[in-house]
Amino acid sequence: MCCYLIIKLGAIGDVAMATTMASELRRANPSARLTWVVGSAAKPLLQAMGIVDEIITANEEAILHGSLAQKMRAVWSVWRSLGRRKFDVCLIPYRDWRYHILRAGVHCKEVRSFRHGRWLIPGRYHGFEYARLALGKDSAADTYIALPPAQSIPCAIPCVDENTPDILLTPGSPSPSASDRMRQWPLDSYVQLARMLCEKGQTVGIVGIDKTGKLEEAFQDLPVVSFINRTTISELLQILKQAKLLVTHDAGTMHLMEICGGPCVALFGPTLASEKLFPAPKNIALQSPVSLACMPCYDGKTYAACNHRRCMHNITPEHVLQVICTHMEKLSHTDDAGEKS
Fold first, then answer.
1. Could you tell me the pTM of the whole model?
2. Are 288 and 271 in contact (CB under 8 A)?
3. Burial of 269 from C-beta contacts in 10 A (0-12 / 13-18 / 19+)
4. Half-sphere exposure at residue 60, Cβ-oriented, CA atoms within 13 angstroms
5. Which residues contact residue 73 at a Cβ distance below 8 angstroms, ignoring those fewer than 6 apart?
6. What secondary structure, in 3-state letters, does the chain show?
7. Closest Cα partner for 269 from 331, 324, 189, 191?
8. Strand 245-249's sheet: what is its strand order?
9. What is the reported pLDDT for 43?
10. pLDDT at res. 145
């Protein structure tokens, strides 16, 4: 039996894309034992998916930004959980050398990471790149690795509500981090889109997390169903499975919808859609209709210094509504054709 150690922390969206490592390893070697070191925020996702054998939690904030004492405690906690075990392969999909500290004391026959010229191929969906690393096919740049269908991923998710709205929106917090703010579509645009969808007779819901309490206020005059701060990861996955379409900017919910196998209309500006959105007919990527020389400005670590975010403001609710209507009609015809066949 092959034993794999995966060290991948990060936000929920990053971990969601990285689950292709586990799914591809399972497909190649069903008896493999997988241990995953993950941050506390994304741990519930791995638990809900049930795709690894062991989950070890690491305090990523302390490791990267804490005091020396905090760093030492966080690293020691991982070392203690891993002990001095032996693994056949250790996967560390990072360029940052600090993540390699977490495997100190562990004996690994082989270590694979995005270092020494093995970085992500620009423009390719990151989920494919993670899988390529996991399978050890770093030189096979032309190998296309498909994401397994959601039905093959075991999910212990309770039923939430049979009346989930057809269209879900992920507006994002009114007070986001600097990184999230750059990717967000304006809140007013989400509200306008929700209003137009409701006027067309569509049922609309909003999902996400908001610590300010102001997000729901923006939609209070509209007949939308709010799941803001009301769901666990497992419940959110169930809601996404029941919805007909998700509309979002580049956020973690976009990747969760891919795990659930549902369609998505995603809005991009500073990030590259081909790297973040799974390439499939059911997914639509929208970017500014006005070509901007600064797009995309994200280089994998930082964004350009930008206050106006014109790339996101140029995407109008009217345009998004038109794309939604066309895409849902196309999806409906595809479903009808599938049922007849």
1. 0.89
2. no
3. buried
4. 17
5. 59, 62
6. CCEEEEECCCCHHHHHHHHHHHHHHHHHCCCCEEEEEEECCCHHHHHHHCCCCEEEEECHHHHHHCCHHHHHHHHHHHHHHHCCCEEEEEEECCCCHHHHHHHCCCEEEEEEECCCCCCCCCCCCHHHHHHHHHHCCCCCCCCCCCCCCHHHCCCCCCCCCCCCCCEEEECCCCCCCHHHHHHCCCHHHHHHHHHHHHHCCCCEEECCCCCCCCHHHHCCCCCCEECCCCCCHHHHHHHHHHCCEEEEECCHHHHHHHHHCCCEEEEECCCCHHHHCCCCCCEEEEECCCCCCCCCCCCCCCCCCCCCCHHHHCCCHHHHHHHHHHHHHHHHHHHHHHHHC
7. 189
8. 225-226, 204-206, 167-170, 245-249, 264-268, 283-287
9. 94
10. 60
What per-residue confidence (pLDDT) applies to 192?
A: 98
Mean pLDDT of successive 10-residue segments in the chain (341 residues)?
94 92 90 96 91 94 92 95 94 89 93 77 87 74 52 48 84 81 94 98 95 91 94 90 95 93 95 93 92 84 84 95 95 67 48
Copy the structure tokens of residue 259: 């795990």
CA distance from start to end of the chain: 42
CA proximity to 116, closest of 133, 135, 140: 133
* Main-chain phi, psi angles of 58, to 5 degrees: -120, 145
Number of Cβ atoms within 10 Å of the Cβ of 326: 11
- Cβ-count burial of 115 within 10 angstroms (0-12 exposed, 13-18 middle, 19+ buried)? middle
Cα(303)–Cα(265) distance, integer angstroms? 23
Decide: residue 55, CB within 10 A, 0-12 exposed, 13-18 middle, 19+ buried: middle
* 147 and 258 Cβ atoms separated by less than 8 Å: yes
